[in-house]
Amino acid sequence: MIGYLTFGLLALLSLSIPVGIVLFLLGFGIDTFFSPFPLMKGLGNLVWSTSNNATLIAIPFFVLLGEILVRSGIATRTYAALDRWVSWLPGGLVHANIATATMFSATSGSSVATAATVATVAMPQAEKLGYDPKLFSGAIAAGGTLGIMIPPSINLIVYGFLTQTSIPRLFLAGLLPGIGLALAFVVITMIICAIRPGLGGERRFFPFAEMLRALAELIPIILLFTVIIGSIYNGWATPTEAAAVGVAGAIVIAAIFGGVSLQMFSQSILGTVKITSMIMLVVIGASFLNFTLASAGIGRELQAFIGGLGLSPLMTILVIVCIYIVLGFFIETLSLMVVTIPIIVPIVVEMGYDPIWFGILMIVLIEMALITPPVGLNLYVVQGARKSGTMSEVMLGTIPYILAMLAMAAALIVVPDIALFLPNALE
Questions:
Q1: Any idea where the TRAP C4-dicarboxylate transport system permease DctM subunit domain is (predicted)?
Q2: Whether 233 contacts 172, CB under 8 Å
Q3: Distance from C-alpha of 182 to C-alpha of 98, rounded to nearest angstrom
Q4: What is the pLDDT of residue 59?
Q5: Crossing angle, helix 313-328 and helix 391-414, to 10 degrees?
Q6: What pLDDT is recorded for position 6?
Q7: What's the per-residue H, E or C state across the chain?
Q8: What is the C-alpha to C-alpha distance for residues 72 and 266, in angstroms, rounded to an integer?
Q9: Can you give the pLDDT at residue 208?
């Protein structure tokens, strides 16, 4: 049955059918051919109970927060400020791409939105200053993936919702690995550009007084992140309430910098409706599919198969990692999460692993799926922002950063405290 499910999933996705619809179709197929119960009678209640959850309200708020910051011009100001602080490193403006992606990851919660923001702002600079298109584009695509690791993360909210784990603890667990990945991207860029200086363009130096003045552009974003995350960790607000506060803060910041307009609000709301609708269709479709999978006993079948392999817990984790890497080539990231979580997470927990730790490991693997062909969304986002060149250039440029993600996944397996230190320390 697992083989039929995998074949059906890949076949339907190859027809360019929207992912959320594919999940419903697979659920209907399982209900018709494999389930001993008439599950369609419970579809209405399932859709309502899935969508009528207060935790998921945080998703449109965080999406709106990112939309406001992008469309009000705050992204351009942030990029220019970071340019003055990091362009002296080997690699020059490439580090500004990574630094800007890191900062916007700490507010937007979306990898695609982060990549689109940085690509729109940075690409004109690359062409003007003569940077290598592969490395420059690859850094933007990879930096954008940090949006689902560094809190607040929409994907971590979905993981917490589906596994009934603490979202604040997940946010804490993602902080150190997210910062670690950002630093790894910087180090890899420095090494590459030290070996081949021509790839990184000209290193630029700015007067220290100008660098200090640029900090004023960064303070609002830092304060916004502090308010959102601080209110969650101190118990002053739930993730949903903190997201609403973040939207209000983003509007205030936009107003201070003169970015508030009727057009900005209308574009932000329209963008939020589109992205949230896509996410919720996938989540609801996945809930129905998971419901039918459980009824048909596929979860038990897969658990029995993995258990029958006779592998140690560590080897089982390595097999699961390989499964995610392979599936990441073909399945969109959010869909990959919501389809596999109800099957894989119980297996992992039964072996004695912490679900918070596994959530962060999964996010690292999901990040890789964002920049691996043929369905890596960030590749298409970055290529769409370029005026020339081929998709293969972006793909080649992400290879060093994919290696960094693999190294982070290995580090999390060897040293779980990379993810668990902050949640355990601040309990």
A1: 8-417
A2: yes
A3: 7
A4: 77
A5: 170
A6: 60
A7: CHHHHHHHHHHHHHCCCCHHHHHHHHHHHHHHHCCCCCHHHHHHHHHHHHHCCHHHHHHHHHHHHHHHHHHCCHHHHHHHHHHHHHCCCCCCHHHHHHHHHHHHHHHHCCHHHHHHHHHHHHHHHHHHHCCCHHHHHHHHHHHHHHHHCCCCCHHHHHHHHHHCCCHHHHHHHHHHHHHHHHHHHHHHHHHHHHHCHHHCCCCCCCCHHHHHHHHHHHHHHHHHHHHHHHHHHCCCCCHHHHHHHHHHHHHHHHHHCCCCCHHHHHHHHHHHHHHHHHHHHHHHHHHHHHHHHHHHCHHHHHHHHHHHCCCCHHHHHHHHHHHHHHHHCCCCHHHHHHHHHHHHHHHHHHCCCCHHHHHHHHHHHHHHHHCCCCCCHHHHHHHHHCCCCCHHHHHHHHHHHHHHHHHHHHHHHHCCHHHHHHHHHCC
A8: 12
A9: 83
ω into residue 152 within 30 of 0, thus cis? yes
User: Cα(325)–Cα(63) distance, rounded to whole angstroms?
Assistant: 27
Question: Alpha carbon of 37 to those of 25, 296, 343, 414: distances in Å?
Answer: 17, 9, 20, 43
Task: Output the pLDDT for position 312.
Answer: 85
Name the token pair of 148. Answer: 């689902």
Report the pLDDT value the prediction gives residue 188, as an integer from 0 to 100.
92
Structure tokens that stand for 13 in this block: 């996705």
Rounded to 10 deg, the angle between the 262-296 and 333-350 helix axes is 40
Question: What's the rounded Cα separation, in Å, for the pair 40 and 275?
Answer: 27
Q: Write out the two tokens for 208.
A: 């220290």
CB atoms within 10 A of CB 396: 15
| Integer-rounded Cα radius of gyration of the chain | 21
Reported as a single tens digit per residue, the pLDDT across 29-50 is 766 665 555 556 666 676 776 6
Output the pLDDT for position 406: 93
Residue 73 burial class via C-beta count within 10 angstroms: exposed 0-12, middle 13-18, buried 19 and up: middle
Tell which residue, 249, 81, 250, 114, has the closest CA to residue 182.
114
Residue 55: CB atoms within 10 Å: 14
Q: How far apart are CA 43 and CA 117, in angstroms?
A: 38
What's the pLDDT score for residue 334?
A: 75
List the structure tokens of 245: 């506060």
Instruction: Please identify every stretch of the chain with a pLDDT value under 50, giving residue numbers as ranges.
Output: none
Nearest to 242, CA basis, from 101, 425, 65, 105:
65
